[in-house]
């Protein structure tokens, strides 16, 4: 077995002597355990998860669904870009959810603005769906649908070839459809990207790069 266990371990004794896990000699990718825990992946606001090392190709159609929980009013949710301008991006800016798409001709944005300023950043789970179908984009948050007109109807394919960055991205990586550099602080779960009939559920513990991200455990309430 070469991978770590997604679990909590406590009260370990060796030869009747209890180990002091409060002051380890060295520590790597170990988070604290929570008294109450929920399914999901915890993002501590400092990093990101990188998925699909060989690059994810959005092309003409993609449907992105995820659930998020946060008390922060800013944060990157997801970005897939190219070396050129083609890209898609999902982010929370000032308590609003923004879905950006650039098929090469220019960026278009669907914005969901909740009634109350902090109603999406209340520490409760919210469901998000972002759909790109050729030049049309649709954003649904907690069942509320936002559509936006796209003047660039001839341009239908987002020719991306970079990894999927979730919750943030490295400083040296260009993201053409994100305006925020703030890493997400909170929990994400059930990230699914669907193309046609092909749905793919992403397991964050299989990310090729994880920084400040703790798969499989979310604190039951914000600490």
Automatic annotation (TrEMBL):
Pfam family name, one: Laminin_G_1
Domain of life the protein comes from: Eukaryota
Coiled coil region boundaries: none
Protein name as it appears in the record: LAMA1 protein
UniProt cross-references to InterPro entries, sorted A to Z: ConA-like_dom_sf, Laminin_G, Neurexin-related_CASP
PANTHER family: LAMININ SUBUNIT ALPHA-1, PIKACHURIN-LIKE PROTEIN
SMART domains, per database record: LamG
UniProt domain Laminin G: residue ranges: 38-218
